[in-house]
Amino acid sequence: MDFGPYLMLASLEGAVTAAVLALTAIGLSLVFGVMRVVNVAHGEFFMLGAVLAWWVASHVGGPPALGFIVALAIAPLAVGGLAALADMTVLKRVNYDPERTIVATIGILYILQQVTLMTYGPEARPVEPPFNTRLALPWFEWGENGFQIYWPWGLSTTSYKLFVIGAAAAVLIGVWILMARTRIGLLMRATQLDREMALAFGIPVERVYATVFGLGGALAALGAVLIVPTQQAHYLMGGDPLLLSFIVVIIGGLGSLPGTVAAAILIGLSDGIISVFFSPMLAKILATMLVALVLVFRPQGLFGSGEK
Amino acid sequence: MLELDKINAGYGRAQILRDLTLRVAPGEILCLLGRNGAGKTTTMKAIMGLLPLMSGAVRLDGKEISALPAHKVAGCGVGYIPQGRRLFGELSVAQNLELGLRAGGCGPEVLEDSLDLFPRLRERMGQRAQTLSGGEQQMLATARALCLKPRVLLLDEPTEGLQPSMIAAIRDVIAVMRDRGVGILLVEQRVDAVLSVADRVAFIENGRNLETLDAEALRRDHSLITRHLGV
Ligand SMILES: Nc1ncnc2c1ncn2[C@@H]1O[C@H](COP(=O)(O)OP(=O)(O)O)[C@@H](O)[C@H]1O
Ligand SMILES: [Mg+2]
After folding, report:
1. Is B99's CB within 8 Å of A189's CB?
2. Mind telling me which residue stretches traverse the membrane in this protein (chain B) (predicted)?
3. Using only C-alpha atoms, what is the Rg of chain A?
4. Given B45, B90, B103, which is nearest A201 (Cβ)?
5. d(Cα B22, Cα B3) in Å, to the nearest integer?
6. Structural domain for B165, as ranges
7. Measured from the CB, is residue B12 less than 6 Å from ligand 1?
8. Where is pLDDT greater, at A123 or A1?
9. What CATH number has the domain bearing residue B63?
10. Domain total for chain B?
């Protein structure tokens, strides 16, 4: 295969990574933005989403599509509920103090991981995609006969991968509408801007916090349900999404939602491309170096605004 | 009637207010005077439930609002115009006002009424609050509090850093609200401004009450002020 088609293939893989990463990171970013706390257990909410997806899919009979659709509805709801519960029982007790919250969420991380190991076990288990048609992709060239389109051998993707990209985009638009156009979004933004004044103007900040933390967990779980048919559910799978989400949130500018999406696309695409042409390890090394550079030279993030 | 009954409050372990007692009757302007750091802003935060009371009680028309969670205080009819305005800067003028309406459970007629008092805001409803001029921001902070149809208004240095024309506009609105029977607790640094609007003046120092006097007495005898403020 020539370089061009190869690059397109790598970009498509990267776009799938970027789509799921954007969902996961937007959850982390939302929590940091509104609540000013770092959720170290975020990757475990992702992992729980994948494990629950397997559990639901294997208990719902019928065609794979049915199990998947049920999982898509139930897993984010269940994980979101669990996250909201963790907020009300644990984070509220430590008063959302930044340092104590980090320690508390590390505790939650290990509890979720070990409980999953004890119940679900150490195996990696697949979830069947609802549909998975192979789609050949065209390429073009300027040859002696002028412009022509052809179908290189091996250049293909699957309908499911395209679905993941589309679904993630739809959910991100939904999050944007929620924040920009709805009443609850207005309360979240007011809380983010000035917690004390939010209280002074009757906003139930504690409920807003539980909602935001639940929403963050649900978005991570949703990303996991989407990706689990192309990967496998495993109790240790939360580490990578956590690391990458942190990278994305820092590069995008802490708490900035558009910045987070832009950074997810940047990191996801370059991860896909570098992994294909060089090695996945190099992709991670470069991303981590980029974070270090951003922290030193542009602490507000590549896409963040100047303030704070 | 807003009553502070021997409240003790502070930040963490640092106690600032000590047995502070104040009463603001409906249709009355009580001015709180005291040096920088005397605890005036802290008093307002304590009323809003933003600081836990160590002891004492804050009552509004007999109801103990200090026993409520902080976010329920505004709904009882307490409008807060904080020092430094503290607008939701990235939100629009309309959204800031909407949050005020929501806090009081009020409808569009209250919004119309607030905008009639500050017509200049009407032209700027879609603008982000942080892009307003200083005077307009103070108008918005005031209108936001009026949108919850307050029974009591807390104004913390509302004229700080404003031009004379803006100061007059704010003061007119304060007078309108007083005439409508709203109780007003006003913190103001400039003594002449205090004397021109206040009904009574409460002096505080180190979070404690000094004297509370009728403004009439102070207008007659300015030396009383110098004595209490030590300026
Ligand atoms: N957030 C805070 N944490 C700790 N101490 C504070 C805080 N805010 C104010 N103080 C202290 O409380 C005292 C009263 O402050 P304040 O109520 O703001 O005075 P003012 O009368 O000037 O409004 C001051 O000694 C100040 O240093
Ligand atoms: Mg003050």
Report:
1. no
2. none
3. 20
4. B103
5. 6
6. 2-87+150-229
7. no
8. A123
9. 3.40.50.300
10. 1
